[in-house]
Design brief:
heterodimer; A: 286 residues; Rossmann fold; 2 domains; 6-stranded mixed β-sheet; 33% helix; B: 283 residues; mainly alpha; 12 helices; 75% helix; flat
């Protein structure tokens, strides 16, 4: 079994397409202070993990295991209490143009049309791309997510799945070094979800985009990930990094139906089962 | 892909990239005026019943005049120049009062929403003034400002400014945190965050604040004119008609007031829908 333990991120030799490290989390601990109760909730403890250039890294774990906190730290708007996060060897201090994010609740501006929502990702940057370049890139991004023709629609006129396509297009249009996705398909219905996973796999195959993808669906993690990071609950710690040695496309019937797919899913479930079944501590689910 | 079932979705050509989610329907002209027709019928029935009932004189005509007399009084009032000066006085006062209220209420409310210290400092006074019945201020205002126009204007502003302020504050405070997160991720600085996220999100709150301000401001306008003894305005017209047992004039003024309030409130409703169409359809 291709295992890698928590603090010694070994998985690099596996199916990660390129060897070099893009993001490195080094003994990171993160938490949230509650000043009123004078407590600090530790969301993640002593996590070390490398994200390699060009890989699809899925992070799976029960709710409250700190996976969102982790992605927010890479995104640059949560600071670690201890340890460091580096990107391209430079420590992360805040959000930057090299990172884009897709949110579970889409986070589209309801007063802007689809194309203006996508433009939002470019218009705040210095140097700002010119008008014609913006238009080209928007068209390209819309093509990629299959939303051509909906430029002038408002988010409230679209279904959940289509809204998230806009969210993905908005992130892709910035041509980020890394794409951070926080349970992007968590709010769409099961059928749309499967369709979007398949389309998204195609997009990634084309762009070779580096992705960190949070989910609490083991199936989704195995389906999409080159590696799956299994995180345990409260405080979040890495149980195991599992290499997914399945060919692509994972949506070919003989891949999804293969015994290896089932084995991997079973293995990850085995790592999480006792937590999913056990009683969770009271409190918020971050 | 699911699409909203608001009309026929696939285009005739069957091509998905045709784009339009919402197609135009051919609605016959009559159907479009149906609601309007019902309203006209409703009001005319009401006025006819009023006329018939008033003619029976079950209720003393001194309290309940015929609608025909009431409209006659209104017509004559306009022709003789009795109503218009008062109406224009009230309207001018009201509009100036609302402008002042908006000019103070919106920025202060936005500031309270975005700055914790300002919020903490101002909120006891704002909430006290929001809750205090406006009439209670009349004696004090008369004491300070006398029986003049400035007193009437002040009571309008004091009535309207606080609902505007409170709504603006609430708007800023309830900005969707995930939109703020998206703003940060996609590089919006402080100014851009305000201009592109916080203010557009708050705009519908500003308008419903103004809407509430209008309702409160109208009350303020009337109590100022009724109790302030300024000798002008629709309130004064009401007061005088009452003193003179001029029931048709009294009713005529009430109808003018009703039309004026409904018109103001409805136009703000319309504006609210125009500005934030997404709030009606879905979250």
């Amino acid at each position: 079994m291709p295992h890698a333990t928590a603090s010694t991120s070994v998985g690099s030799s596996g199916t990660g397409r390129d060897g070099d490290v893009l993001v490195r989390a080094d003994h990171v601990t993160a938490g949230y202070d509650n000043l009123r109760e004078r407590t600090r909730l530790i969301a993640l403890r002593d996590v070390s993990l490398d994200v390699h250039r060009g890989e699809f890294l899925a992070i799976v774990g029960p709710s409250g295991c700190g996976k969102t906190t982790f992605i927010n730290m890479i995104g640059g708007f949560v600071k670690p209490l201890r340890g460091t996060i580096t990107m391209d060897g430079k420590p992360v201090h805040g959000p930057g143009a090299d990172r884009a994010m897709v949110f579970q609740d889409y986070a589209l501006l309801p007063w802007r049309t689809v194309e203006r929502n996508i433009a939002f990702a470019m218009e705040n940057r210095r140097p700002r791309p010119g008008r014609s370049e913006q238009r080209e890139r928007i068209a390209e991004a819309l093509d990629m997510v299959g939303l051509r023709g909906f430029e002038k629609s408002y988010p409230h006129e679209l279904s959940g799945g289509m809204r998230q396509r806009v969210g993905i297009a908005r992130a892709l249009v910035t041509q980020p070094a890394i794409l951070l996705m926080d349970e992007p398909f968590g709010a769409v219905d099961a059928m749309t979800r499967e369709a979007m996973q398949a389309e998204f796999e195609k997009i990634i195959a084309k762009t070779r985009q580096t992705v960190v993808f949070i989910t609490h669906s083991i199936d989704e993690a195995v389906t999409l990930g080159d590696r799956v990071v299994v995180v345990s609950n409260r405080p979040g710690q890495i149980r195991e990094v599992v290499d997914i040695d399945l060919p692509r496309s994972r949506f070919d019937a003989d891949v999804k139906g293969s015994t290896r797919f089932a084995e991997l899913r079973e293995h990850i479930w085995g790592l999480l089962a006792h937590e999913a079944l056990g009683a969770k501590p009271k409190g918020d689910a971050r | 892909m699911t699409t909203q079932a608001t009309g026929p979705v696939t285009s005739e050509t069957g091509q998905r990239d045709n784009g339009k989610v919402l197609e135009q329907l051919q609605v016959p002209g009559i159907a479009r005026f149906k609601n309007f027709g019902i309203t006209v019928l409703n009001l005319s029935t009401f006025f006819v019943l009023w006329e018939v009932f008033a003619r029976t004189e079950v209720i003393n005509p001194l309290f309940f005049p015929r609608i025909s007399d009431t409209f006659a009084a209104m017509y004559n009032g306009f022709v003789d120049g009795v109503i218009w000066p008062q109406l224009s006085h009230s309207l001018t006062n009201f509009l100036i009062g609302m402008l002042i209220s908006a000019a103070i209420g919106i920025p202060v409310g936005l500031l309270m929403g975005s700055n914790h210290i300002v919020d903490l400092t101002l909120s006891p006074y704002v909430w006290a003034m929001t809750s205090l019945p406006r009439v209670a201020l009349i004696p004090l205002l008369i004491l300070i400002l006398g029986f003049g126009n400035s007193m009437q204007l002040t009571i309008i502003v004091l009535s309207a400014v606080f609902p505007i302020m409170v709504n603006c504050m609430a708007g800023v405070k309830t900005v969707d945190p995930s939109l703020i997160r998206a703003g940060k991720v996609f590089g919006a600085g402080r100014v851009q965050m305000y201009l592109k996220i916080i203010l557009p999100f708050t705009l519908p709150f500003v308008i419903s604040g103004i809407n509430q301000g209008i309702a409160r401001g109208l009350v303020g306008m009337l109590i100022g004119e009724l109790l302030g003894g300024g000798g002008a305005g629709l309130g004064y017209l009401l007061d005088r008609a009452g003193d003179q047992f001029d029931a048709p004039m009294l009713y005529a003024t009430l109808i003018i007031l009703a039309v004026m309030s409904v018109g103001l409130v409805q136009s703000m409703r319309w504006l609210e829908r125009r500005v934030a169409p997404w709030r009606e359809t879905s979250a």
